[in-house]
């Protein structure tokens, strides 16, 4: 059983490990290997802790936690469970914090826990929180070639809205698509 709650400082090392492992699993063959190899969970932990401490309430972080017996090895959230997923969301970048749109900035599940419902549970909670905050739409960006993620978001009610951008990773331009879901 997966439970979703707000992330705490105790969760940060597990979240950073999930983020790095998630990038390496999801983007293998899409993002340059050199970029993925350079990712470091300890550096990510330090940066994430600084970001969490700076806070300001703009970005909300949620974690998916499994009972200790079911998860194993994912890092304890301090509540007897194993952190198996993480999502970050807030106002859409480029709009004031009070804008009508929210954005799902990140959603990662421990690679060995993909398909267990953790991603669906996190997405449902992000949608709920965004709606409660008065957002009318939830937006996200996904690599065009990340077909698995695009199918996942499609099943969660998101559709491509026609906007695209290009991000450069170690000199390689990669196309991203914007997806939207009405709340």
TrEMBL record:
<dbReference type="InterPro" id="IPR000182">
    <property type="entry name" value="GNAT_dom"/>
</dbReference>
<dbReference type="GO" id="GO:0016746">
    <property type="term" value="F:acyltransferase activity"/>
</dbReference>
<dbReference type="InterPro" id="IPR050832">
    <property type="entry name" value="Bact_Acetyltransf"/>
</dbReference>
<protein>
    <submittedName>
        <fullName>GNAT family N-acetyltransferase</fullName>
        <ecNumber>2.3.-.-</ecNumber>
    </submittedName>
</protein>
<dbReference type="InterPro" id="IPR016181">
    <property type="entry name" value="Acyl_CoA_acyltransferase"/>
</dbReference>
<feature type="domain" description="N-acetyltransferase">
    <location>
        <begin position="2"/>
        <end position="183"/>
    </location>
</feature>
<keyword id="KW-0808">Transferase</keyword>
<keyword id="KW-0012">Acyltransferase</keyword>
<dbReference type="Pfam" id="PF00583">
    <property type="entry name" value="Acetyltransf_1"/>
</dbReference>
